[in-house]
Amino acid sequence: MTVTAAAPAPDIEEDENSVSSAFRAYINRLRGGDVGSLPAVLGFVALVILFSVLRPDTFASSRNAANLLVQATPVIFIAMGLVFVLLLGEIDLGAGYTAGTSAAVMGVLMTNHGVGWPVAVAACIATGLVIGLTVGLLVARLNIPSFVVTLASFLGLQGVLLLIIGEGGTISITSPVIIGIMNNNLSPLMGWLLFAVVVLGYAANLLWTASARRRAGLPVASSAILVAKVLALAIPLGAATYLLNLERAVNPLIKSLRGIPIVVPFTLVFLLALTFLASRTAFGRHVYAVGGNTEAARRAGINVPSIKIMCFIIGSIMAAVAGILFASYNNSVSPTTGGSSTLLYAVGAAVIGGTSLFGGKGRVVDAILGGLVVAVIQNGLPLITQKAGIQLIVTGLVLLLAASVDAISRRRSAATGR
Amino acid sequence: MTSRTTESGAGAPLLSLRGVNKSFGAVHVLKDAGIDAWAGKVTALVGDNGAGKSTLVKGIAGIYAFDNGDYRFDGRSVHVTNPKQSAALGIEVVYQDLALCDNLDVVQNMFLGREMRTGLTLDETTMERRAAETLAGLSVRTLKSVRQKVSSLSGGQRQTVAIAKSVLWNSKLVILDEPTAALGVAQTEQVLNLVRRLADNGLAVVLITHNMNDVMRVADSIAALYLGRTAAQVDARTVNTTQIVELITAGYSGDIGLPPSVAKEAVA
Q1: Distance to chain B for A127, nearest Cα, Å
Q2: Are A265 and A194 in contact (CB under 8 A)?
Q3: Quick one: B234 exposed, middle or buried, by C-beta within 10 A (0-12, 13-18, 19+)?
Q4: Do B31 and B108 belong to one domain?
Q5: Where residue A32 falls among pLDDT bands split at 50, 70, 90?
Q6: pLDDT given for residue B1 in this prediction
Q7: How confident is the prediction for chain B on average, in pLDDT?
Q8: Which of B97, B126, B151 sits opposite A418 (nearest CB)?
Q9: Which domains does chain A have, with CATH numbers?
Q10: How far is Cα A26 from Cα B206, in angstroms, rounded to an integer?
Q11: Chain B residues contacting A, CB < 8 Å?
Q12: Which of A45, A135, A351, B41 has the fewest CB atoms nearer than 10 Å to its CB?
């Protein structure tokens, strides 16, 4: 076994690892229905080009780019948590109002009771935890379909939010720390530093994995593929960093406005932590197993109910964090925080990114890619038409398109046996 | 037990069941049934629908406990009442519906529920190496990569993965429930070869099957159940297909099997 890489079948080894065969394998995967996040990436690029051509002054500006990123993050946070629930093949319709309710708890504690922000944030997270635990217990222990349980929590939490805030009222948020999350920027130097850390960290991770596999005598991807992967990350990130470091204040002399929004590294931390959880730990593996074949997971000795409960807790905690972001962005919490179509945008983000509604397939980063597509539509459409009706119809169609891509890719995978 | 054992020179069996009974309410499913399985041998467990094959196997695996009877494993009398105990003894069951996750790859499936880890993280390289070694040890060459998703595998390849999964854990006895039931000719051949290699590698194999061809191809010993009783456990070289079919359908064949009076009484 130790000499596999060298001796027995060098032609096959080479064939599997060369760039052209890796590319062929990728094309085969696509044709087999395993499209991953490709539709999201293509959709994002196409929409950005479309809106930039139609509205070169308003859409294609660095100010709008920063706005778009910041607007996208609360939905992305809900979607990142939803990925875990969707991986099980379940749904959490109450995630939007979980965000609102948690944010309201935080706002009331800070504004009405003078509690410091660390305690208020902890209470906000705890609210999410309790909601997730309750929903999870009902779904996993009583076997009530998650659609029904979370439809109930969607309605119920809407009421809780109203009671906490009081009809028609809003709670203003004044804590500079909370407001800063969505409104402050990194200095340009820090931005490039962040860029370097992310790209080098990604490269180091790839190299480390490759060397561990080589030591174990397992097939390793060629270095050309590794370089291509690093470049595929570095080029768009570099461009985004450059764009965001441009001056974007209306009048720079009064107050300069430039740099990567602080919320970007904030999102990256959550992305890394959740990706680690999903792909590198036994827990994550078990989540995919439960979503793929619950019976097989049960027979393998996996505690299926506790996996489900944990996923709903993760989903609700991420929603609570999204609640903090909403509060920070709006400087307030109102009875509509996390309401209207927030949840649908979040589900749309996860599905557009490539997470399957049928369970077992998806990644945390999908939520970010899909969330950016949703944000581009939300941001770009109003610049083209003021008619809310058309905006809603287009958003609905895009969601439908994403769900169709999911369903068609599933049918194709079934047909090609993938 | 009324069966006649014609095994010779096989040594002590790894698994030995004698006088095992199991009832579900008023239904007496197993009546003084018994079976032996030897390390290095394939023991076919045959019987018509409802003969009690599945009940016997589920009892061995500890899915439920036998009402009474002697259950000996590796020379010791054991009491197995749940699947964890049988797994601890080294007994693995490959069920007919396989229990694989389509969305996971071969390595992930083989280690599902028993992932190896270093600290908090999964030890992917060790798992992949051990999976590849196990498959190589079984001379499996039909898999292109152990990182293929199970959804991309054929029925025979899936069966191969499920069987390889069962031998990964230093198991001593592997029970296969109808492993060739849904397979084509070529894939049946692959799986039967694999079953043979399991035994050649020193494991005790119990093969549940309906297919006489499979039995004659790979079995060293044949245990026939007839309406909850062990009609006979015979050396595969000493019987022909007709005799086995008679054992399955009538409970006796010439002078082997249940005494005709017992066999007839069992029907009534």
Answers
A1: 27
A2: yes
A3: buried
A4: no
A5: low
A6: 41
A7: 84
A8: B151
A9: 37-184+261-416 (1.10.3470), 185-260 (no CATH)
A10: 41
A11: 84, 95, 97-104, 108, 112-115, 117, 120-122, 125-126, 128-129, 132-133, 136, 145, 149, 151-154
A12: A45
Q: Are residues B1 and B75 in the same domain?
A: yes
- Regarding whether B194 and B61 lie in a shared domain, the answer is yes
Closest-CA distance of chain B to residue A213, Å: 6
Residue A27 has a pLDDT of 76
Number of domains in chain B: 2
Q: B-chain residues within 8 Å CB-CB of A297?
A: 101, 112-113
Q: What is the ipTM of this complex?
A: 0.80
Mean model confidence pLDDT for chain A: 85
Query: Is B67 found in the same domain as B178?
Result: yes
Q: Which domain holds residue B8?
A: 1-90+172-268
Q: What is the 3-state secondary structure (H, E, C) of chain B?
A: CCCCECCCCCCCCCEEEEEEEEEECCEEEEEEEEEEECCCCEEEEEECCCCCHHHHHHHHHCCCCCCEEEEEECCEECCCCCHHHHHHHCEEEECCCCCCCCCCEHHHHHCCCCCCEECCEECHHHHHHHHHHHHHHCCCCCCCCCCCEHHHCCHHHHHHHHHHHHHCCCCCEEEEECCCCCCCHHHHHHHHHHHHHHHHCCCEEEEECCCHHHHHHHCCEEEEEECCEEEEEEEHHHCCHHHHHHHHHHCEECCEECCHHHHHHHHC
A346-368: average pLDDT:
89
Mutation for testing the B interface, residue in A285, A304, A358, A411 having most B CBs under 10 Å? A285
Residues composing chain B: 268
**Which residues from chain B sit within 8 angstroms of residue A418, using beta carbons?**
149, 151-152
Give yes or no: residues B165 and B145 share one domain.
yes
- B161 and B112 in a common domain: yes
Least confident of A159-163, A294-298, B7-11: B7-11
Are the beta carbons of B125 and A216 separated by less than 8 Å?
yes
Q: In chain A, what residues touch B97 (CB-CB under 8 Å)?
A: 295
CATH number, residue B24? 3.40.50.300
Residue B202: CB atoms within 10 A of its CB come to 9
Together in a domain, B78 and B139: no
- Domain finish residue from B171, B196, B221: B171
Both B219 and B258 in one domain: the answer is yes
Do the chains contact at A299 and B151, CB–CB below 8 Å? no
Q: Which of A54, A78, A82, A67 is closest to A376 using CA atoms?
A: A67
Contacts of A289 in chain B (CB under 8 A): 101, 104, 108, 112-113
B219-231 mean pLDDT? 88
Last residue of a domain, one of B115, B141, B171: B171
Asked if A302 lies within 8 A of B113 by C-beta distance, the reply is yes
Sequence-ordered alpha helix ranges (H) in A9-61: 10-17, 19-31, 38-54
